[in-house]
Amino acid sequence: MNELLLIVSIAGSRVAFPAAKVESVVELEALSPVPRAPAHVAGLSALRSRVLTVIDCQRSLELATTDLTGLREAAVVEIDGHHYALTVDAVEDVVEALSDPVPVRAAMGVGWERVGLGMIETEEGPLLLIDIDALIAGPPSDRAVA
Question: What average pLDDT values come out for the chain (146 residues) when binned by 10 residues?
C-alpha cells in the first residue's frame, strides 16, 4: 500500500484523509452565511477566485458546532467540480499508509461510523480513514432539509 494520508484532528480525534483527494490546506478567514443551507454547511469562502463551500466537520459528524470566528484551518477538496473546505482543528502531517483499511471493531459514535472507511496502519499508529464524500454529505437529518 503506497497511499499517502493527510493526518488531521477533528473534535480532538486524529484521523486520516486520503491525501490524493486534498488539493491544499488553507486558513479560512471570512465566511458568508448561506440561508437555508443544511446545518453542517458553515458558509461560503473565497480562495484564489474560487468559491468554497465550507463544511463544519464537527457538525457533519453530529458532535458539536465549531466556533468558526477568526482563522480556521481547512483541507480543500474538489468533488464533481465543486470545491469544499473541510474545517479541522489542526493539520498535522502527511504519512504513508502501511496497510489497507480494516473494519473498526468498536463503537465510535454514529457520525464517525457513517464516515469511517476503516482503521489504517501508519507510522504514527492506527488512524480512522475518512470518507470525504460522506463527510461533505453530512448527517441524514441535514440531507432531509436540503
Answer: 91 96 93 92 90 95 79 93 95 96 91 96 96 96 60
- DSSP type of residue 70: S
For strand 50-55 and strand 82-87, is the pairing parallel, antiparallel, or unpaired? parallel
E strands, 31-143, are 41-47, 50-55, 72-79, 82-87, 90-96, 116-122, 125-130
As a whole number of angstroms, the longest Cα–Cα distance in the chain is: 44
Q: How far apart are the C-alpha atoms of 16 and 81, rounded to whole Å?
A: 23
Q: Cell numbers at residue 112, please?
A: 464517525
- H-type helices in 4-139, by residue range? 57-60, 110-115, 132-137
| Domain architecture of the chain: domains with CATH | 4-139 (2.40.50.180)
The overall pTM is greater than 0.85: yes
